[in-house]
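Quick one, C-alpha cells below. Sequence please?
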C-alpha cells in the first residue's frame, strides 16, 4: 500500500526532527491520512508537489505537465 509506505516515511521524518517536508502524495485511494494530520498538529510545515489529497489543507506546487513537455 503506497499510503502506508508514505506514512512510514513521514513518521521517520518526524522522529528525525525535520523542519518541514515536501511531499508527492501516494494517491492510491483514500487510505489512512492521519500522518498528515499529525504533521499539522505538530506544526511541521509540508508542501504537496504535483498533486494533493482532498480535505488536507496545505500549500501545493502544481505543474502543467502537458504544457511543460514543449
Amino acid at each position: 500500500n503506497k499510503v502506508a509506505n508514505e506514512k512510514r516515511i513521514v513518521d521517520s521524518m518526524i522522529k528525525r526532527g525535520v523542519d518541514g517536508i515536501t511531499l508527492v502524495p501516494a494517491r492510491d485511494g483514500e487510505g489512512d491520512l492521519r500522518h498528515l494530520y499529525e504533521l499539522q498538529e505538530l506544526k511541521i510545515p509540508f508542501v504537496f508537489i504535483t498533486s494533493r489529497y482532498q480535505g488536507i489543507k496545505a500549500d501545493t506546487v502544481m505543474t502543467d505537465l502537458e504544457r511543460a513537455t514543449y
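The chain has three helices and three strands. The longest strand covers residues 46-49.
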